[in-house]
Amino acid sequence: QVPLAESGGGLVQAGDSLRLSCTASERTFTRGNMAWFRQAPGKEREFVASIPRNGEFTYYADSVKGRFTISRDNAKNAVFLQMNSLKPEDTAVYFCATSLTIYLDSHLASRDQSYYYWGQGTQVTVSS
């Protein structure tokens, strides 16, 4: 059983918006932080955004601050990423991830080693 399943990727033009969704198959997969990472061709996977279970705090990579918004719906075991003003450099495979522990420290929340469950990814392509 796949613990996390992403959806919402696609091909858009620069300046457009997309909303990614990630649903966990079990509530236990969502007890910690839920986060988004991305990996562009030929590059390492990088942090995008994270949100702890209570949703009180959110953490973003500098490259997406002010354009992307992360949110979660614990009743639906889901996390979302609203992406506005998309740029060609946002092109990547976007992965959803969840941690076993709640991280309220931005450094810990942004490390991929902090996350235990991962989705298979959804492609986002932004044309210029």
Entry summary:
This protein is mainly beta and 128 residues long.
Total of helices: 1
**How are helices and strands ordered from N to C?**
EEEEEEEEEHEE
Describe the global form. globular
Structural class: mainly beta
Mean of residue pLDDT?
96
Radius of gyration: 13 Å
Distance between the terminal alpha carbons, to the nearest Å? 37 Å
Largest sheet: 7 strands, mixed
- The number of distinct β-strands equals 11
DSSP strand (E) fraction?
35-45%
Q: Helical content, roughly? A: under 10%
- Unreliable stretches covering 5 or more consecutive residues: none
Indicate the topology.
Layout: E1 4-7, E2 10-13, E3 18-24, E4 34-39, E5 46-51, E6 59-60, E7 68-73, E8 78-83, E9 92-98, H1 106-109, E10 117-118, E11 122-127
Parallel strand pairs: 2-11
Antiparallel strand pairs: 1-3, 3-8, 4-5, 4-9, 5-6, 7-8, 9-10, 9-11
